[in-house]
Amino acid sequence: AGNSKSSKSTAVPPGPPMYLDLVYIPNHSNRKNVDVEFFKRVRSSYYVVSGNDSAAEEPSRAVLDSLLEGKAQWDSNMQVTLIPTHDSEVMREWYQDTHEKQQDLNIMVLASSSTVVMQDESFPACKIEL
């Protein structure tokens, strides 16, 4: 009691890391649900980063920075690919500001120029091979 750290809930409970092929970062990459502990524990070859609402701070720069900090603590330098669902100002600024660190950590941001057209809708798309 009285210790604010003990009352703080984390999105990922303590334990050994989980290795996955593809992870969708929850809640439009909002910092309320994803922190450094998430990326230390949930290790993936691909992370989908959604969010295109700058007023709601989605995607969150803090979440993207948490990926760098969490990945730096992995015991391997496996390739990680970020797949943004939207071309946002936050993503572009983060990419430019941290590009050297991304390279050091073997993180690639996938920019897609492909578009899928279905009936009356069109949307950006990318192909993922696992």
TrEMBL record:
Gene Ontology cellular component terms for the protein in this record: cytosol; dendrite; microtubule; microtubule associated complex; neuronal cell body; synapse
Which intervals of the chain form a coiled coil?
none
Q: Name one GO molecular function term.
A: actin binding
GO BP terms, alphabetized: axonogenesis; dendrite development; microtubule cytoskeleton organization; regulation of microtubule depolymerization
PANTHER family per the UniProt record, alphabetical: MICROTUBULE-ASSOCIATED PROTEIN, MICROTUBULE-ASSOCIATED PROTEIN 1B
| Protein name as it appears in the record | MAP1B protein
Q: Which organism is it from?
A: Spizella passerina
What gene codes for this chain?
Map1b_0
